[in-house]
Structure to design on (268 residues):
């Protein structure tokens, strides 16, 4: 016989699934979390607590499943839930970071400052640089390296030739770069919903995206989206920060596309 699916809101089933969320096997914990999405109802405090515990699991696949379930089951505008999701924006797993962005787009209240600041920081995060450096260190097994994360260009090797130039390894990082671009684009869309117009940190982050070489290599559409965001979110009329942020990237797009129209005629 086919197993009977528990009806939504079944208390006994929810209690059993909460217990399985602490199972010793990661796959069973993921299955329990996914089942909770269909059985539990939004705003159940015990379910939220179980998912919060799963968000700190040692396995990324469990944390990712828990964040997805949070988006469907957690209380809207819950302060502690949003703060938890903001902390997951810097998780070591790209899947978890992307899931946290999407969850905040559903749960965060308009003008929620911690969410706004956390999402703005996502825009200035370039995972490609960190992964390239890690890849290079493993590949060459350097014993005397000094990683310069600030400039993000190479690993200093105490006299040896710099073997980890980002352009040299760009092709190997295509998948990671595309994934991070999708996360940053999702962060922009979420900010478009919740950020207050003229928010200084958001404008500065968008300016970073418009001028960042890493973003340019990753996705030109990412920079187009940032330009549109600046024009729609900035306090009206555009303040000097937005005008400065838009000027150079607009010239870059015009030069790249070969267009001879003035920047004032561009519609984003």
């Amino acid at each position: 016989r086919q197993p009977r699916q528990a009806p939504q809101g079944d208390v006994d089933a929810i209690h059993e699934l909460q217990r399985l969320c602490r199972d010793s096997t990661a796959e069973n914990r993921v299955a329990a979390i996914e089942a909770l999405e269909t059985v539990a109802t939004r705003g159940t405090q015990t379910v939220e607590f179980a998912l919060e515990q799963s968000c700190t699991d040692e396995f990324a696949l469990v944390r990712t499943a828990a964040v997805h379930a949070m988006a469907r089951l957690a209380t809207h505008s819950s302060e502690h839930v949003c703060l938890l999701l903001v902390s997951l924006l810097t998780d070591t797993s790209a899947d978890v970071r992307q899931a946290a962005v999407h969850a905040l787009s559903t749960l965060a209240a308009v003008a929620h400052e911690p969410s706004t600041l956390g999402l703005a920081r996502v825009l200035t995060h370039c995972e490609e640089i960190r992964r390239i450096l890690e890849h290079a260190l493993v590949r060459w097994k350097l014993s005397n390296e000094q990683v310069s994360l600030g400039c993000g260009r190479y690993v200093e090797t105490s006299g040896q030739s710099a073997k980890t130039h980002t352009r040299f390894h760009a092709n190997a990082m295509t998948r990671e770069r595309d994934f991070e671009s999708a996360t940053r684009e999702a962060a922009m869309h979420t900010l478009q919903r919740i950020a207050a117009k003229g928010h200084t940190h958001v404008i500065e982050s968008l300016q970073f995206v418009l001028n960042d070489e890493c973003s340019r290599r990753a996705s030109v559409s990412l920079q187009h989206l940032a330009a549109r965001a600046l024009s729609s979110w900035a306090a009206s009329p555009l303040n000097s920060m937005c005008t400065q942020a838009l000027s150079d990237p607009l010239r870059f797009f015009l030069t790249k596309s070969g267009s001879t129209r003035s920047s004032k005629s561009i519609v984003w």
User: Anything to note?
Assistant: The first helix runs from residue 11 to 20.
